[in-house]
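Hi all, posting the design record for the shared folder.

TITLE: backbone redesign
STEP: 1 of 1
STRUCTURE INPUT:
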């Protein structure tokens, strides 16, 4: 009976510990960052090849830059994107309406489609390890440093793997101590 009480007391004292453990920090960071995606957007449609046969005006949307067109053409050649062009005639003008879409081969990497943009995933990451915990003097707040690892790289990573997570960087998460334990700050 004394052993059972002793085990319960030790278990209780550890669960109410003022120290934030690496395993608890990693678990909460992983929960907060369920979807650590590297994604980018591509303009879905734009007008080009404008010609006028008189005095009329047409609003031309900003076409992608030459560098973006180079990337789009690369993914068209790989069979991930498709470009449809439609000639529009209106009053005294004509232009091409360019519409970009994702092929069935590229569809698994489509994150969203909104505001005339395609949002595509180039990589997925997960938390690798907690590298350090700095608990503040008041023992009510803590800064946790951690690293991530790449768990998936899509065909779109050939160009769009920038502005993403770097596996060598140390990222930070912030925690606050509550009466029931440590909680990650979601700001």
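Okay, here is what came back for every position:
SEQUENCE:
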């Amino acid at each position: 009976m004394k052993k059972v009480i002793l085990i319960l007391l030790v278990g209780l004292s550890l669960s109410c510990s003022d120290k934030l453990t690496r395993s608890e920090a990693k678990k909460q960071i992983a929960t907060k960052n369920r979807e650590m995606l590297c994604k980018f957007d591509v303009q879905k449609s734009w007008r080009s090849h404008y010609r006028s046969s008189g005095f009329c005006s047409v609003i031309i949307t900003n076409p992608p830059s030459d560098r973006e067109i180079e990337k789009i053409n690369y993914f068209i050649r790989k069979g991930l994107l498709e470009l449809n062009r439609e000639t529009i005639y209106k009053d005294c003008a004509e232009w091409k309406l360019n519409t970009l879409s994702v092929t069935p081969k590229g569809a698994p990497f489509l994150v969203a489609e909104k505001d005339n943009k395609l949002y595509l995933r180039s990589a997925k990451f997960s938390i690798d390890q907690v590298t350090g915990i700095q608990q503040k003097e008041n023992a009510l707040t803590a800064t946790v440093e951690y690293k991530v690892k790449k768990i998936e790289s899509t065909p779109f990573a050939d160009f769009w793997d920038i502005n993403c997570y770097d596996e060598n960087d140390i990222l930070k998460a912030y925690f606050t101590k509550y009466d029931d334990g440590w909680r990650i700050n979601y700001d």
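COMMENT: DSSP finds three helices and nine strands in the chain.
Let me know if anyone wants the other runs.
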